């Protein structure tokens, strides 16, 4: 077996299609299909069952999968040993994150890491959903809930705080808000209810608010609505310093605490390069959250 064929096998298994594997590997799908056929002929077994839903590993494919992953880890380890001689991080690391942390924390934290490691490329995938690390959608991910299944390691990064907030422009023209009962009749900004991908993000539901006049699955869109005077919404304390004129409302009565976790594939904990990046990332996030919450 050749590593190049196993690499294509892993990509097809993770993407569940030849086109997805080809896009991941920058390879023509027809070439990927021929390489899979060659591997199947060499092994004397069918590795994928094709259906309208895509390519699913057969029993033989499932047996090959852990061996291919071990080969992948061996290649990563060899590359790391060679690159690690410089004492700096290098190569590419892809980080998945909800767009709140991706917009307001990761840019400055990751910029500082890359400044110290100029041969390192960091990619931030900012999507309001969970990431599948087993399919290598990302090398590691920031989450707001610890996953309970899969071959994953979970590390607490930091708690963070959120408060109800609005722009002074909105508050100047809206009825006064002195207690939680006064929120009735005010325009609320938040998530699209049926697109909340994690129960920890159901902030308004926790407050008993069932109508959201301006809703988006993006924290950045919600934040901009609040900043422009669209209404009231829950805001990360670490985002407040970037919005002049936005202030907390009912700070003593409405205060939420959530937690960020760093989630990694268990096999990657054997890679010193990934461990060093994870340490730099978590240390940087903790410092930045403490700094920005102190300003808010």
Automatic annotation (TrEMBL):
- Mind listing the GO biological process terms from this record? DNA-templated transcription
* Zinc-finger found in the keyword field: no
Start and end residues of each HTH lysR-type domain: 1-58
Which Pfam families does this entry report, sorted A to Z? HTH_1, LysR_substrate
Quote the InterPro entries the UniProt record gives. Answer: LysR-type_TF_proteobact-type, LysR_HTH_N, LysR_subst-bd, WH-like_DNA-bd_sf, WH_DNA-bd_sf
Q: What keywords sit in the KW lines?
A: DNA-binding, Transcription, Transcription regulation
Select a single GO molecular function from the record's annotations and give it: DNA-binding transcription factor activity
Give the matching SUPFAM superfamilies: Periplasmic binding protein-like II (SSF53850), Winged helix' DNA-binding domain (SSF46785)
Record-stated family: Belongs to the LysR transcriptional regulatory family.
Name of the protein in question: LysR family transcriptional regulator
